[in-house]
Amino acid sequence: MLDGKKSLFSGMQATGTLTLGNYLGALKNWVDFEEEYETFYCVVDMHSITVRQDPAELRKRARSLLTLYIAAGLNPEKNCIYYQSHVSAHAELSWILNCFTYMGELNRMTQFKDKAAKHTDNINAGLYTYPVLMAADILLFQSDIVPVGFDQKQHLEITRDIAERFNSVYGDVFTIPDPYIGKQGAKIMSLQEPEKKMSKSDENPNASIFLMDDTDTIIRKFKRAVTDSESEIRYSEDKPGISNLIDVYGITTGKSVAETEKEFASSGYGDFKLAVGESVANMLKPIQDKYAELQKDKDYIDNIIKVNADKANYYATKTLRKVQKKVGFPERIR
User: Fold this and answer.
1) Among residues 6, 28, 78, 115, which one is catalytic?
2) Residues facing residue 6 across a β-bridge
C-alpha cells in the first residue's frame, strides 16, 4: 500500500509489436484500475536485453510502447508510465533478492527452459535470473496485485516466495502480491495454431493481429484463421479455432458466448470471420488514430517520460533504502 492506496504493478517488454492478445489480455483491462489503485506500468527494457537487441531499434520500440500505453487509454496523470531502465532501483534490488533466491527455484522456471531452447547461442545469466528481476519490479512498489497472464503465474509465485523468505528474516518489509487474471480475454490464441497463445514473436505473420494493423490486414488475417471442417459456430473444447474467435468477438462487442452463438446460428464460418475482423478493426481504429497524434507531439511524450520517471524513482527508492538498511548496508551520507 502506498499513501493510503493499494498498489498495482505491471509491464510489457519493449520488443516486437503488441498483439491483439496483449491488448485484450492486459492493456485494455489496465484502464479499469486507475481510480482504485496507485498504478505503475513499466516499459520493460531491462528484461528485453536477455536476447540480443539492436540498440536503436530497442530505443524506438520502447518509446513506441510507452506512447501506445497512453493511446490505449492510460492517463499518464493517473498512472505512472515509465521506462524500467530509468529507475536504477530495479537492478539494485534485483541483486539483493538474488541472494534470497535458491538455485532449485530458478531451475524449475519453465519460461527459462523455453527461451533457452529458442536461443541456444545466448543462454546467459540474465535469462536465468530473469524471475528475480521481475520480483524486484513487483516488490519495489509494494504491489498488492499484479495483472498477469497464465504464463506468468509461475514468476509471481516465486516473487511471493522470495518476499516471504525476506520478511521471515527481517520483518514485514515487502507486501506479498496477489495475481489478477481477467476472466475473459486473458489468453487470446494464435489464428494459425489455436492451441497456442497469440505471440508477437510468432514467425507466421498471419498468426497474430498487431495493434497497428490496418483494417484490410486485420480482416484478411481473420479470413485465413484456422478453424475446423465443420460449419457450426459453437463454443467447445474440440473447436479451439472457433472458440477463440468467439472469445475475441465477445470481448470486442460485449456479447456473451450464448448471444454470439445465437447471432450466427444460421451463418457460415466465412461470415463469422468477417464479422470478427470488422469488430476488431473498429475497436483498434481509435487507438491507432490517437497513437499517430501522440507520435507528433515529442515534447508531450518527453515530459511524461521525465515526470513519471521521477515519480517511479521516488517510490522505488523508499523501498530500496528500507531493504538496504535491513540487510546491513551502510547509510548514505547526505
Assistant:
1) 115
2) 37
